[in-house]
Design a protein that fits this description.
Number of strands: 12
Shape: globular
Distance between the termini: 61 Å
Low-confidence stretches: none
Structural class: alpha/beta
Number of domains: 1
Largest sheet: 6 strands, mixed
Mean pLDDT: 90
Helix content: 25-40%
Number of helices: 7
Strand order of the largest sheet: 1-4-5-8-12-11
Length: 258
């Protein structure tokens, strides 16, 4: 029989403990969750999975326009235990591309004050664009590279699917808007550092949640090559409440547009 130490090692090294912790926390905050859903990757013709899909809805009612239904936020979450130092290179966010993403994927409109309140624009002008970790010369071995690829790959194949919220999925509640976003949720930012691309000085410790800007190339469901702009939220589990509050503010901005 396996020793208790061997069993403990399996639990510690699997990462599932952090995965479960995230799932239980979000459920406690009123989010519906789907754990480790599988999907078929068109590019490789292999089954893949993402750690977690989380959805929450808020009811909207406007008696003047007789508009009633749910605003839904759906997150494609990859949970990562970070075992080593990571450095991120920051530069100016592509505001035009970020605005275009919001206009194309949410009810928010161009040149509107409420659009500017969405955290993709309101969080500030600097985003991470490059990253590296100790002893990882191959990008595919980077923990952040694997996390962003898993989150984005799942999102491009699973977005637009049936809601995991029962009363929305079965049509009892109409969806007025569903905003789907990729997220990497890290156990800690203790070993995260930033430098500026324009003047790489002494690395500074990263204390707050931030975004990674990506132009992501993939094969769509028809096997055609596509490239799409994304902002990927990188969230410290210790600051998850701050992130959930940001999503509440996003919802409020959408309510104003509706």
């Amino acid at each position: 029989m396996a020793s208790s130490e061997e069993i403990a090692t399996i639990v510690t090294e699997s990462g599932n403990s952090f995965h479960c912790r995230v799932t239980n926390y979000l459920r406690g905050k009123g989010w519906h969750t789907l754990v480790s859903p599988y999907y078929m990757d068109v590019g490789t013709n292999k089954p893949r999975e993402i750690d977690l899909i989380a959805e929450k809805h808020w009811m909207y009612e406007d008696r003047m326009s007789n508009k009633y239904g749910a605003v839904v936020i759906k997150l494609f979450i990859e949970c990562k235990y970070v075992p080593q130092p990571n450095v991120f290179w920051f530069s100016n966010k592509d505001i035009a591309a970020a605005t275009n993403w919001l206009v194309s994927n949410t009810p928010l409109r161009e040149n509107n004050m409420f659009t500017k309140r969405h955290h993709y624009l309101a969080s500030g002008p600097r985003v991470a664009k490059l990253f590296a970790s100790k002893n990882r010369p191959n990008a595919e071995n980077e923990v952040i590279y694997r996390a962003l690829n898993q989150s984005l790959n799942a999102m491009v194949y699973l977005r637009g699917k049936k809601s995991i919220i029962p009363e929305i999925g079965d049509g009892r509640i109409t969806t007025l808007a569903c905003v789907e976003m990729p997220v990497v949720l890290c156990n800690s930012f203790a070993d995260f550092y930033r430098v500026e691309m324009e003047s790489t000085g002494v690395p500074q410790h990263l204390d707050e949640n931030f975004q990674l800007e990506i132009n992501y190339a993939y094969l769509n469901l028809n096997g055609k090559q596509k490239s799409e702009y994304f902002l990927l939220d990188i969230v410290d589990f210790e600051k998850i409440d701050s992130y959930l509050n940001v999503l509440e503010a996003d919802k409020d901005a959408i309510f104003q547009i509706l």
